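Input for the complex:
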Amino acid sequence: MNALIAVPLQSTTTTSQPFANVEIPTLLLSGIVWVPTIVALALLLFPDRTDAHRARLRSVALTAVGLVAALGVLMWYGFRDQGATFAYEEKRNWMQALGTSYHLGVDGVSMPVLLLSTILFLTAVLASYRVRDRVKEYFFFLLLLETGVNGVLSSLDYLLFFLFWGMQLVPAFFLIGTWGGGPRRLQVAWKYLAFGLVSSGLLLLAILVTAARAPSHTFDIPTLHDAHLPVAVATLAFFLFLGAFALQLPVFPLHTGFVDAQSEAPAPVAAVLAGVVTKLGAYGLIRVNLGEFQDVLHKFRVPLLALALLTIIWPAVAALRQDDLRRLIGYVVVSRLGFLVLATVSAQPVAVNGGVVLMVADGLSAGALIYLAASLIERTNTRSVRAMGGLASRMPRGAVLWIFAALASIGLPGLAGFVGQFLVFLGAYSADRKATTIALLGVLLTAGVLVWTIQRLFFGPLPESLGSVRDLGSLELSYTITLVSLIFLIGIIPGFMLLDNVNFGVLTLLTRGTG
Amino acid sequence: MPLTALLAAAAKGPLDTWSPTFFSGWTLFLPLIALLLIVTFTIDSRRASAWISVFFALVAFAGAVVLLAIELRHPAYKEHTLTFLQFFTGQSGVASEFTLQWGFLADPLAAAMLLMVTGVSLFTQVYALGYLRREDGVVRFYLSASFMTFSMSGVVLSTSYGELYFFWALTSVATFVLVGHWWQRDAAARAARKVLLVTQVGDIGLLAGIIYIFFRFHDLGFQALRSQYAGGKVGQNGLLIMSLLVFAGVVGKAAQLPLHTWAPDSAEAPAPAAALIHGAAMAATGVYLLARTYPLFIASPRALTVVAVVGGVTAVAAALWALAEDNLKRLIAYATISEIGLAVLAFGAGAFSASVFQAFAHGWSKALLFLGAGIIVRELRTESIAEMGGLWRRMRTTGVLMLIGAAAAAGIPPLSGFVSKDAILSQLLSQPNAAVTAVVMVVTFLSGLYMFRMFFSVFAGPTVRRRRFEPERIRDPGGRIRTGMVALAVFAAAVGLFDLVRAGPEFVRFVTFPGQKSGHAASLIGSVLTSLAALLGLAVALLVYGLRALPASRISGRVPFVPRALSRAFYLGDAYRWGTENAVLRAGQVADWVDRVVIDGAVDRVGGGVAGMTGPFRWAPSPRIPQLALGAFAGLLLLGILAGAVLGHLKL
Amino acid sequence: MKTFGNLLVFSPELWLLAGAIVVFLLGRAQEDARPGVLLALLAVVGAFFALATQLRSTLLILDGAFVLDGYAKFFDVVFLAATALVLVMTLTSAGTNDAPGASFPAFLLLATLGALLATSAAEMVSLFVGLELLSVGIVLIAVLGRRSVASAQAGIIYLVSSLAGGAVLLYGLAVAYGLTGQTNLRAVGAALSERSPSEPAVLLALVLLVAGFALMLAFVPFHWWLAESFAGAPLPALAFVASVGIGAAFAVFGRLMQSAFAPTSVGFATVLAVLAAVTMTYGSLAALSQTSIRRLLAYLTIAQVGYGLAAVAAIQRGGANALLLFVLTLAIGNLGACWALLAYSRGIDSDRLADLTGMSRYAPTLALIAALSLASIAGLPPLAGFFGKVFVLQAAVQAGLGWLAVVAVANLMLLAFAVLRVMRMAYLDRATFEIDPIPLGRPVAAGLGVTAAAVVALAIFLGPLYAAASAGAGTLGH
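Predicted:
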C-alpha cells in the first residue's frame, strides 16, 4: 500500500522528458481520467447486433467504471491531507512556451467530488440495464462523459480544465437527445447544449483573460493562486468564471434547461448530471471564484448572496407545483445547489468544508432519488405524482430507500446531508446572518416538498391501477443501497469518511498571500 | 464507538466502571442495538423482533434505574465526550479550531428523564405485544419504537447543542414514522406529513438558535457554555434572540401554540405509538431542552416572560379545546398539550424543578390514558366519546386503570399529577405573581373537568347502541396489555409519593438547578389550593357528565359560537391549511408559471432569435459572375469607407 | 551577391517542378492517372526531404526574392503534407467517373509549387507570381478534374474571383511600390514606417491589399464565390482549396501585414478585426441552416477564415504564432471533413444534408472521421481545431481585441451547434433509406486515418509544434 500513498512532487520544475517521472502514484489520476476514454474507444470495436453482444458491451463498460471506482477508492485510501500541496500530482511538459502543462492533481476539495463521480458513474452503468437501443454508442458517450467530469476535477491547469469542461458537454447532449424518454428530448438536449456552450464560452474567455493578464503568463492553477491581477481584470475574470459556473450549476434563473433535462434524460444520465455534473459548477465556484478571486467575491457579496438565496428558495417553491416526479427532483436538486453557492460566497472555512461534504452528500442522495424515481415511473407507467399513491404496500423496499434518500436531501441528522448543511450554516452565519436565516427557511420548503411527495407517492390508499407493481429487483437494490449506505456512513462518521481530508485543501484555498 | 466507550470506561478499574456515564451510554445504545439486530436478523419474524425490542428496552430501563440510583446517591454532573468532527479553520483565537463533540452525560435531570423515557417505552412495548398481535407491521412498530427510544435517550443524554440537535431531529422522524404507522389510511398519512413539517418549523428555529450561539460563543457544549451566557459577551437582545430561537424548538416539539396543530392529529397513531409520543417524547424533548439550557433563559428574563406567556396561553387554550373535543384520542392529545403548557409556564415563571417534575410525572399517566383509550376504541370501534358510555360494568380493569390515569393527570391527591401541580403552585406562591397563580389554578380546574368529562362519558351512563354492534362482546384485555398498563398505572400513582411523604430524597430537590434556589417551600396553601381546584373540576364533571344533572347540551346551547370555536381549536388549524393552500401552493404555481413561461420562454426566444438569424442564409442567393463582379466592387467600396472611418477615428 | 549560389536551397520547389514536368510528359502517353499520382507523390516526398535537410537555417534566395525562413518552412511542411494526403486519397478514385485526368497530378504539383513560392516570397513580384501560379493550378484542377458543367462553372468562378483578387492585390502592391520605390517587403516596411499611416495613399494601398486577399480568402462581403465554387468543384480540388489554397493565401497575407505594413497594420488591425468578426459570424450562422453538404462545408470554411483573419489582425502581438498553428489545424480539419463527407455524398449520390442519416451504418469509418474532423472544425476540445482557435483567441486577447475574442467565442458555440447537428444526423438519427455499405478504398482510409489521427493526437504533440510555430513566427520579424 505504500506505493499508493500520495507523494507530492519533490520539485516544482517540470521534467523536460514527456514520459519521464513515471511512477504509479503519479499515474493514478491519469488512469482515473483516461481509462474511461480508452475503454470507450475500445467499445467501438465490439459488435452490437445481438443481445449477447449488448450484454458484453455492458459488462465491458461495467468493468471500466468499476476499475475507475476502485482506483478512486484506492486513491482515497492513500490520500493524506497534503497541507499546501496537491496529491497524486502529475505534471508533464505540454506547451511550456504557452505556459500550459499537463498538470493533474487533487486536494481535499476535489478528491471527495472525484470519488463521488467514480461511484456515481459505477451506479449509472449498473442502472443502464434498461438501455437496449444503440448500446454501444450509449456506453461510449457515458464513458466519455466520465473522462470529462473526472478530468475537470483533477486538472490543475486552466487550459486542461477547459478541455475537460468541453469534453463533458457533448456526450451529455447526445445522451439526452438520443436516449431520452419523452417526445421533447431533442429540443431539451439542444437547450441543454446551448446552456453548456455558453458556459464553455464564458469559461474560455475567463481563462484567456486570466492567463493573459496574470503577472506570469501561465495557465497553471497553483501558480496563479493568489496572483495579483489588476482589479478591473480580476473583476472581469471573476464574472466570466461566475457566469460559466453559474450556468453549469445552475443558479436561478438559468435552471430551466437543467430541469427539463432532468425530466427527459435517461435515469442514469440524469443521476450523473444532477449528482456530479452540476457539482462541477460548484467545484469551479469554490476552486476559482473563491480560491482565486476572493477579494472580488467579497466586493460583490450582497448580490451573490441574493443569487444564492434565490437559487435556494425559488426552485423549492416551484417544486411544490410539479406533478412530473423527475422535474420535481430536478427542482429539489437545484434548490440544494443554492447552499453550495451560499457556502462559497460566505468564504468561511467552516462553510466551505461543509460545502465539500454537501457536494458529495447531495450527489449521492440526488442519484438515489433519481434512480428510485425511475424505478417508480417504469413500474407505474406514469410520471405524475398525483397518479401514484400507497405504493409502500407494493414496494416496501423502494419506499424505505426513498424515504432515506429524501430525508438525506433535507439534512436529517445521521445522514450525509446533515453534516454538510450544518457546517454550511454555521460558517455562513458569521458571514451573513440574514441570508443564512432565509436559507434556513429554504430547508423548510425543501422538506415540505419532499415530505409531501413521500406521502403522495407511498402512503394512503393504493390506486387500483397500481395493484401489480413489483418491488425493486436485486439489481436496482444493488446500486441504490450502495448510495444509501454511503449516505449513512458519511452521516455517522463524516470525519473518517470525508472531512478529515478536506480541511487542509480548503485552508490552502482560502489562504491569501500577505501582499 | 459504544464499544470503545465501554472499554475506555472499563480500563479505569472496577470503581470507575460503575461511573454514571457508563450507564448513560449503556442506556443510549441498547435501543439502537435492538434496532440493528432486528434489521439484520429478524426483520421477517414478528415474535422475535418484538421480544428483542422489549428485552433491550427492559435492559435499558434497568440501566436507567441504576443511573438514577447512582445519581440519587451522588448527584453530580459528569460527561463522557468523543470527537465527532474536528478541523482547523485557519483563523486566530478561539475560532482557530472547529470541533463538534458528542457523548453522553449523567446528572440528576438526565437520569430522571431517562427513567421516564425508557420506562414509558418499555411498558408501551409490553402493551403492544398484545395490542398489535393481530395487526400488520408489528416489526415496523418495534423498529420505530426502538428508534424513538434511542433518539429520545440521545436528546436527554446530549452534551452539546450540536448533538442535541442531531437527536432532536431524529425524534421528529421517529414521530413521523410512528404517526404514519397506518399509512394506508389517508388521515394517518396526512397526519404524519403534518408532524414532520410542523415540527420541522420548530427544528429550524432551534437550528438557527444553535447557529447563533455558535456564532457568538464558538462553542456548543452545555457545560462550557453554562457560565458564558451571563458573562456579558452577548447583549440582552442577543440573549433574547438566542433563547427565543431555542424555545422555538420547544414550541414545535412540545406542541405549544402556535405550532400545536400536529399533536391532536398524531392521535391517528396506534395507541402504543401515541402513548410513546405523548407520554415520553413531547415532554422529554420539549421541557427537557428548556431545563437543560436554563442558564441561557435565566440570562434573559424577557425570554422567560415569553416562555411563561406561551406556556400559559397554550395550557388554557388546549384545556378548553380538550373540553370541547369529542374524539377520545384527540382529547387526550389536547390534554398533553395543556399539561406540557403548564410545565412550560412553570419554567417561564421560575419554578424550574417543579416544571421538570410536571413533565416527568405527566408522562406516565398520559401514556396510560392513551393505552387505555386504545383498548376502548378497539372494543367500541369508534373514537367519539358521544358514542361511548357504560363501560364501567363491562371493562372494570380498564376502568380502574383509566380512573387512576385520569385522576393522576387531573391532579387529584395524592397521585403524581397532584404532586407536580402542587410543586408548581408552591414554588410560584413564594414569588407572588397573581396572574401566573391564577392560570395554574384555572388549568388545574380545567384538567379536572376535562379528564373526568372524558372518564364519565366513557364509563358512566348507558351504553350507546349502534347498528351491528354488540356491547355484550366487549371485554377487558388481559395478559401483556394489562401488564403494561398496570405498570404504568403504578408509576403514575407512585412517582409523587416520595415527595408527598417527604421520606426519601424529594424529586424536586433531587433535580437541582445550580445557582437557583430549589424553593419548594412545602406550602400548605399550595397543596390545598391545588386539591381544591382539581376536586372542583371533578365535581363539576360529575355533575354535568357523570350524573347528567346539568347536561352539557344545556350549557352549550346558551352560547352559540364558543363551543364550535373550541371544537375547531379556534380555527387555527384551518387558518394554517388555508395559508398553505392559498399562499404557499399558490406561490409554487406562480414560480412554476414564471419558470415555464417567462424564463423558459425567454430562453426559447433567444434560441429562436439565433435560429431566425440563420433564416436569410437558407435562401442565400446564388450569384453568378456579373453579380460577383458587382459585389466585389461594392465590397471594395465598403472596405475603403470602413478603413477610412476607422483610421480617421484613430487619428493615426 | 551570388545569384544562383544557394539555388540548392530551392530544391523543394525544384522537386515539385520536376515532378510536374515528368507527369506532364507521361500523362500524354496513357489514360490512367495512377502512375502520375504516384510520381507526383514521389516528387512531394522528395520535396519534403529536401526541405527537411535545411530546417535549421534562414536563407535568402535569388537576391532576396525568396526567403526560406521558419515561417515559410512551417507552412511548406503543412502544404506538402496536405498535398501528399490529397494525392494519396485520389489514388482510389481512379476508374470512377470522378477520376482525375492524367494531368491532374501535374497541376496539383504546380499549384503546390505556387503555394510554396508565395509563402516564401520576400518580394512583391515573386509573391504575386507565386499566388497566380497557385490560382491557375487550382482552376485547372477544378476544370479538368471532372468533365461536367458544375465542375467547369466552379472552375470559372474560382478563376474570376482569384483573377479579380489578384488584380486588386496587384494595384495595392503597385501603390505601395509607388510610395516607396521598393519591392522588397522589408524595405517597403522600412520606407512606410517613415510615412504617416493615415496618408491617403498608404491607406489606398492597404485597402486594395486587403480587398485582394478578401477575394482570395472569401471574407464577407467577398465570400459568395466560395459557396458557389464548392457547390461544383471536384472533390480533390475542393479539398486542396480548403486546405492549401486558403492556407497559402493566409501565409502571404500574414507576411505582408507583418513585414511590409507593420507600422500601419497596427491601426488597421481594427478593420481586420471587424472583418474577422463579420466573417466568422456570417459563416457560422449560415452553416447552421444549410441543407446541402457542400454548402455546409463552404460556410464552415468561411467561418474558419474569420478565425484566421482574427489571427492576422492580431499579428503584431503573437498573432503570427497563432496563424501558423491555426492554418495547420485548419488544413487537417478541412481535409478530413471535406473528403469524408463528400466521399459519402458521392457514394449515396446525394448532396442533401438530411441524407447523412445512416452514415454511421453504411460507412462507419467515414462517419467517424467526418465526426472527428467536424468537431475539430467547430473547436470542440480536445481536438486539433480547438487548440488552433484557442491560440487565435489568446492572440486576440493579448492584442487588446477582447471584443473580437468574445465574438469568436460566441461563434464557437454556433459552430458547435452546426456541427453537432450534422453529427447527430450521421450517428443517431434513423436512416431514411437502405443501401449497401459504401466501400472505402485503402488509400482513402489511410489518408483519412492520418488526418483523423492528427486531429486527435495533435494535443499530445502540441509542445514541439508550438515551439516550432514560435520559432517560425520569430523569424518573420519586422
